[in-house]
Amino acid sequence: MVAENRREILRVEHVSKSFPGVKALDDVSLVLHENEVLGLCGENGAGKSTLLKVFSGIYKADAGKIFFNGMETFFKTPMESIRAGINIIHQELSYLSHLTVAENVHQGRLPLRYGFINWKKLFKDTKILFEKYNIDINPALKLKDLSIAEKQIVEIMKVISRDAKIIVMDEPTSSLGMDDVKNLIKIIHALSGEGISIIFISHRLEEVIEVSDRLIVLRDGRNVADFMKDEFDDHKIISKMVGRNITQIYPKMEVPLGKSMLVFENVTNASIKNVSLEVRSGEIAGLYGMAGAGQDGIMAAAFGLGGKYSGAIYLDGKKLRLKTPVDAIKNGLGYVTAERKVDGLILNHAVRQNIALASLNKLSPRGIINYPMERFIAGRWVKELSIKTSSISTQINNLSGGNQQKVVLAKWLELSPKVLLLNEPTRGVDVGAKQEIFKFIQEMCTRGISVLMVSSDMMEMLGMADTVYTVWEGKITAKFPRKDVTEYKLMLAAINRREEII
Ligand SMILES: Nc1ncnc2c1ncn2[C@@H]1O[C@H](COP(=O)(O)OP(=O)(O)OP(=O)(O)O)[C@@H](O)[C@H]1O
Ligand SMILES: [Mg+2]
C-alpha cells in the first residue's frame, strides 16, 4: 500500500526544542499514518526520545505544530495524550519494583471491588492478556524478582493493554533476547493489523528494517531521510545516521592471547552448575544464551554477587574468595551491569561524578575529592568516547540513553581493571558509537586486559568474541573458538541441541 493514500493519524510540523546548551530538535517534521509501522533511527542524542516526548505532552516544544487525527492539538500533560490514545513504552523503564507483575501491567486501572483490589480478576485479566501474546511470566511475581528482559516485557504489556491508537516503542528490544524480539515483532504486526499505528525506535538496524513500513532518520536534531520500505537498507540508514559510511562495525583485531586471567573451575551456586571457563589475557570471551539461561548468574558469581559457591574462581593465578563486589574490585575486576539505571549510575549526579567517583575513591582514600582531577578524568572520557553532553557538570538523567551507557563504560574503564565483565555493554548505543566503544575495548585487550562479555546481540558476539561459551539452564553447553563459530551453531547450542550441529 502506498502510505500517501493512507489516513494520517499524527503530524508533527517544524518542531524545535532546546535544553540549556543543546538544540535537541531543530525544525523536525514527521507524519504517521493509520496502520503504519514507522521506524525512527538516529545516533545517540539525535533527538528521537525528545521528539516523542514533545508530541506526547511531556515536553513543551519551543516552536512547531502537532496535529492528531487531523486536528491541531497540544497535549499539556502525558495523561492527556494517553487519554487520546498515544501510548509510549519509554526507553528508561519505570516500574514499581515491590508490586506484582499484574499490578504493574494494570497500573492506574486496577480492578476494584468494594474499594479493594479485586485480585482474582486482576490475575485473571493479566493471564488472559499474557496468553494472547504468548508471554510466559507469572503475574504474581514481584517486579524486583524479574530479569531485565522480563521487566521490559511487562512494560510492553502494560502499554499494549491500554486502549491505544498510537504505540511508540523507544528501544523496546535493547535488553531482549532473540526469542523475545521475534515475539515482539509478531505482536507489532498483530497490532498494526488491528489498526494501531506504531513508531519503533531501535539501534539494532536489522530489527528496524524488518518491522518498518517506512523509516525516518534524524541527525543532530534534524530530519535527514524519509524512506519507504523498498528504499532502505542498513548501509543507507547508517550513512544517513552518522553522515559517513561505516563498513566495519566490529573492529576486531587478532590479539595474541596470553596467560590465564579469569578461571572458573566447576563453579556451582544457587543459579549456576559446574561452570568451568577460562579467559586469557587479551581475550574477549563471550557468554551466549537465551534470556535467563544463566549468563547473568555467571557474571554475578565472578563479581562476588552470586552468594555462596563451591568450586574455585581464580584471577591472575590467585584463588579468590569472593563474598562481595568489594572483594572483586580489590582483585582487579570491573562489572558493567545490564541495568544501568539500577546498578550503574547515580542519576541525580553530574556526568563528572559518575565517571570519576569510583576511581577517585581509590586515589583519595581519605575521602577528599580532588575536583581538578575529577574534571580532568571526566573531560578525557567525554572526548574519548564522544559522550554527547552539554557539559561534564550536566546531570546524568538529562543525557540520552546511549550516552548514559557510555558514562557507565567510562567509569569502569577508568578503574582499569584486569578483567572487565561486560553485560550488554552496548545496550541502546548507536552503530557509530558501538564501533568506537569496541575499538577502545579492543585496544585495552592489546594492553593485556581480559573481557568476559554477555550479549544478546548475536552480531556483536560473532563480531567481537575470540571464544564463545553457550549457556543453558545454568550450565555451559559448548565452547567455540572464533574461527569455528556461526550464527546457526550458537543458536542450536544455546537451546542445548548441539548434536544437530553439522
Ligand atoms: N531533560 C533534558 N535536559 C537537558 N538536555 C536534554 C534533556 N533531554 C534530552 N537532552 C539532550 O537532548 C539531546 C537529544 O536527546 P534524546 O534523548 O532525544 O536523544 P536520542 O536520539 O533519544 O538518543 P539515544 O539513542 O541515545 O536514546 C541530547 O543531547 C540530550 O543530552
Ligand atoms: Mg533516546
Short description:
Helix content is 34%, strand content 25%.
Write structural notes for this entry.
With 502 residues, this protein is an alpha/beta fold. The protein has helices at 48-55, 78-84, 101-105, 119-132, 148-160, 178-193, 205-211, 234-242, 295-302, 325-330, 340-344, 351-363, 371-384, 401-414, 431-446, 458-464, 487-494, and strands at 8-19, 22-33, 37-41, 63-68, 71-72, 86-89, 112-113, 116-117, 166-170, 197-201, 214-219, 222-228, 260-268, 275-280, 284-288, 310-315, 318-319, 333-336, 419-423, 450-454, 467-472, 475-481. A hairpin with a 2-residue loop joins strand 7 (112-113) and strand 8 (116-117). It is globular. It starts with 7 loop residues before the first strand and ends in an 8-residue tail after the last helix. The mean pLDDT is 90. Bound molecules: adenosine-5'-triphosphate (ATP) and magnesium ion.
CATH class categorisation of the largest domain: Alpha Beta
Q: How far apart are the termini? A: 42 Å
CATH topology of the largest domain: Rossmann fold
Low-confidence stretches: none
Strand order of the largest sheet: 6-9-10-3-11-12
Q: State the major sheet.
A: 6 strands, mixed
Total count of domains = 3
CATH architecture type of the largest domain: 3-Layer(aba) Sandwich
Number of helices: 17
Radius of gyration: 23 Å
Percentage of residues assigned to helices: 25-40%
Bulk shape: globular
Helix/sheet category: alpha/beta
Global mean pLDDT:
90
In CATH, the homologous superfamily of the largest domain goes by the name P-loop containing nucleotide triphosphate hydrolases
Catalogue the ligands: adenosine-5'-triphosphate, magnesium ion
